[in-house]
Amino acid sequence: MNLKLFKPSSIARDPRTSTLWIILGLFVTVIILEFSTPPEYVFGYLYIGPVLLATSRLSRTNAVKITLTAAVLTMLNSWLPENRVLSSSIVASRAIAVLAMLVTAVLSDRNRCYEEALAQQQAKLQAQEKLADMREDFVSTLTHDLKTPLLGAIETLKAFQQSAFGIVSLRQQKVLATIVRSHQTSLQLVETLLDVYRNDTEGLVLQNNPTDLVALVEEVATSLTELAASRRVHISFSYGESDFRRFLWVNGDALQLQRVFANLLTNAINHSPRGGKVEVVLESHASSQMAKVMDSGAGITEEELPHLFERFYQGHSDRHAKGSGLGLYLTRQIIEAHGGTIWAENRSPNGAIFGFRLPTFPHYPSTPSIES
């Protein structure tokens, strides 16, 4: 005899078939109890077990059929098998049993619908999370890989500017300078995008040290002199109620805070008209240091104000310069990582104000100095 014919897998049943056999067995048991005892003894409540199994494991049609069958059998036992004269108490008790079965079936079916809906929502959420992770991994990898060719292109163009491959005319120098600036802008965008996704997934790690905001913003403004000159925008500084230069000490990451000032100043220069003015206001308070960058552009609409610091938000106002929608989002990430707050508002009579506030570093004085 071939013993392989008796493998367990060869006689395994479908789960629904197994459920049907269990329900049939329970029905037979309850029928024997019901029809072998007087009608006064109501065993119809035991049909609730098969009903629950049917509504939880079988299709809705089969569950309805099984429930109705149990209800009919329960009521049928009122006069069968002895064909007795019905009494109101027997009918009432069995009607209550039938009602209990029907309520149980309805509630069990509703619970099954809730569970299925919940499972679908969980599956959708898991799919969305997986898609978001894949998207972030893709963007992170793409932006990281884009840096190398951009850096190579910039260095090659600089070599051309330095006449490494032959004499370059003044007109060609201007063209090369324009291309270099364009590549540097693209590189900055790639780095910003990479930092944004890294900060969202891993968090922003700060290297905090005592830092003077005044020195940082002056250094950044110097690096943006060429951009401001190309747009004929003048950058000025003021120190609140004092006309003298102040020290605004905070416990912060100098490199990250430089990026904040660079984003805000670049944004202000780009949104100021030719011949306009960008004013940097630095104020020292007892518990916080505040910096505001004010431009003389078209201002911000009321609809845009709540969304300015959202990722990829570019706005739809009359402010003529359009960016990637990442600079202000990254700025917000940095300020909030320092425990500060950032905001934007309109300036009277025209223009916009972007400001932030950071906790004061208490061990360094914030009094005015005689340095102008």
Task: Describe the strand arrangement of the main beta sheet, using strand numbers.
Answer: 2-4-5-7-6
Global morphology = elongated
Assign the CATH superfamily of the largest domain. Answer: Histidine kinase-like ATPase, C-terminal domain
Strand content: 5-15%
Q: What order do the helices and strands follow?
A: HHHHHEHHEEHEEHEE
The chain-level mean pLDDT equals 82
What is the radius of gyration computed over CA atoms, rounded to a whole number of angstroms? 38 Å
* Class inferred from helices and paired strands: alpha+beta
CATH fold assignment of the largest domain: Heat Shock Protein 90
Number of strands: 7
Question: How does this structure look, described?
Answer:
This protein has 3 domains: 117 residues, no CATH class; 67 residues; 151 residues, Heat Shock Protein 90 (2-Layer Sandwich), CATH 3.30.565.10. It is elongated. With 372 residues, it is α+β, with helices and mostly antiparallel strands. It has a 5-stranded mixed beta sheet with strand order 2-4-5-7-6. Helix content is 54%, strand content 11%. Its EC number is 2.7.13.3.
Give me some keywords for this one.
disordered N terminus, two-stranded antiparallel ribbon, Heat Shock Protein 90, 7 strands, disordered C terminus, alpha+beta, 372 residues, 9 helices, five-stranded mixed beta sheet
Question: How would you summarize what this structure contains?
Answer:
The chain is of the alpha+beta class. The chain folds into three domains: 117 residues, no CATH class; 67 residues; 151 residues, Histidine kinase-like ATPase, C-terminal domain (Heat Shock Protein 90), CATH 3.30.565. It is built from nine helices and seven strands.
